[in-house]
Amino acid sequence: MSEGISKQLVLPKGSGFGVKNGALDKDAFRKVVTVLAAKVAPEKAGVLLKAPALKRSLIDVPKVKSVARGPDQDKLVLLKYSDQADLIEDAVQFLRSQAAELVPHELVFDYDYWSADDVIHAILPEELEEGAPSGFAVVGHIAHMNLRPEYLPYKHIIGQVVLDKNPSVRTVVNKLDNIVDQFRVFKMELLAGEPDFVVTQSENDCKFTFDFREVYWNSRLHHEHERLIEQFKTEDVIADVFAGVGPFAIPAAKKGCGVLANDLNPSSYKYLTVNISDNKVGSLVRPFCEDGREFIRQAFNRAWDDPLAPVPQRKQRRTELKEIRAGERPAPPVGPRRNRISHFVMNLPDTAILFLDAFRGVLSPAIAGERDLSGLYAEATMPMIHTHCFTRELEPEKAEADIRQRVEEKIGHPLGADTVYHWVRSVAPQKEMYCVSFRLPYAVAYAS
């Protein structure tokens, strides 16, 4: 017995199909397939669809509806065969009992029918087909690809396919090199779509606007952002050393935290201030644009000299506001301003560990001056430091040992037993990303 029309609905793989004069030829992907259809009165269509005798004969092609409109008021129940001889006898007898007339029906499968993978596997030559690119990251309306060199001759065709097959994508770009500058950005080229690189990205109930060419953003870190933010308490003050456009800072402020947020990249700082305003957390986040070491050294003094806003009050219900105005209920007391930093976030995995030496002596008179911060920062109340980093060690025990050795070398002190090493993601075949979280040692902070 025939398997139906499924075998006709495939594109040739690794054949350079659908490319004409170096461009995508969409007309080449058009296929017309004739199937059998059972023409019945509208009220009988449901009977045929539910009939056990037809269960193995109904059309089973993705994205094709089982019932089509026929001439006059009739319905066409589509079958998966082109030839009546392929129908089993039970199906034939059932159709006769229902006075169904078998008629031919044309199905048109054009370029829009095929998936991006179908098209890309067809257009590439045989030697490139097996490892054909299919994945990409989406940032706002931009699809960001990282094509290997052997696929670059087909980059614009691949970009066009990605654009065509993803309605939310308006711009497709390709990464040109590794992140090499101090601002963690890379060069990119436009493959297809609009040359519009300013995006709006939603994450953790916040909206972030930025120019993807000018700042660092990695959508794959969404869960890491969420993980750390869950550790922050509403009353905490957070110092974000490499804040970017605010993926840690702004959701933390939405939670009620006070935040000192810094980034050396002027473009990141620009969009950080935009996002602070757009997300209405201006009273809780203070942005800075300076070197990470200088920010670390000044953060404690800044929080002491100009404490951050109190924890936001719960929004009063209408009846409560009415009672307060009438003097029937006292207004809720305003909490104290906050001057103790609870957490430092250092999300610059390539070099963050190198900045840890800035914590040496950060609470000593040499930096704190005449401020007596010892009442705020005792052994048990020192801030937690969350440092993202890379390691070439693939085994967890070896990775932790490598990270510990590098951190202790920079701070000049052993890490405590409560230090946590959290695996974040695999970046490359021999490159893992971790976050090491430890309490700033008292002896380090007060070192002379």
Automatic annotation (TrEMBL):
PROSITE patterns the record matches: SAM_MT_TRM5_TYW2
Domain SAM-dependent methyltransferase TRM5/TYW2-type, first and last residues per copy: 136-442
EC assignment: 2.1.1.228
Q: Coiled-coil annotation: which residues?
A: none
Q: Does the keyword S-adenosyl-L-methionine apply?
A: yes
Report residues binding S-adenosyl-L-methionine.
Answer: 225, 263-264, 291-292, 347
Where does it mainly reside? mitochondrion
**Highest taxon of the source?**
Eukaryota
Annotated Pfam families: TRM5-TYW2_MTfase, TYW2_N_2
What class does this enzyme belong to in the EC scheme?
Answer: transferase
* Keyword vocabulary terms for this entry: Cytoplasm, Methyltransferase, Mitochondrion, Nucleus, S-adenosyl-L-methionine, Transferase, tRNA processing
Q: Which GO terms describe its molecular function?
A: tRNA (guanine(37)-N1)-methyltransferase activity
Q: What CDD domains does this protein map onto?
A: AdoMet_MTases (cd02440)
Gene Ontology terms: cellular component: mitochondrial matrix; nucleus
Gene Ontology biological-process entries: mitochondrial tRNA methylation; tRNA N1-guanine methylation
This enzyme catalyses: guanosine(37) in tRNA + S-adenosyl-L-methionine = N(1)-methylguanosine(37) in tRNA + S-adenosyl-L-homocysteine + H(+)
Cellular compartments annotated:
Mitochondrion matrix; Nucleus; Cytoplasm
Q: What does this protein do?
A: Specifically methylates the N1 position of guanosine-37 in various cytoplasmic and mitochondrial tRNAs. Methylation is not dependent on the nature of the nucleoside 5' of the target nucleoside. This is the first step in the biosynthesis of wybutosine (yW), a modified base adjacent to the anticodon of tRNAs and required for accurate decoding.
On assembly, the entry states:
Monomer.
Per the record, the similarity remark reads: Belongs to the class I-like SAM-binding methyltransferase superfamily. TRM5/TYW2 family.
Protein name stated in the entry: tRNA (guanine(37)-N1)-methyltransferase
| Origin species | Lentinus brumalis
Gene name of the record: TRM5
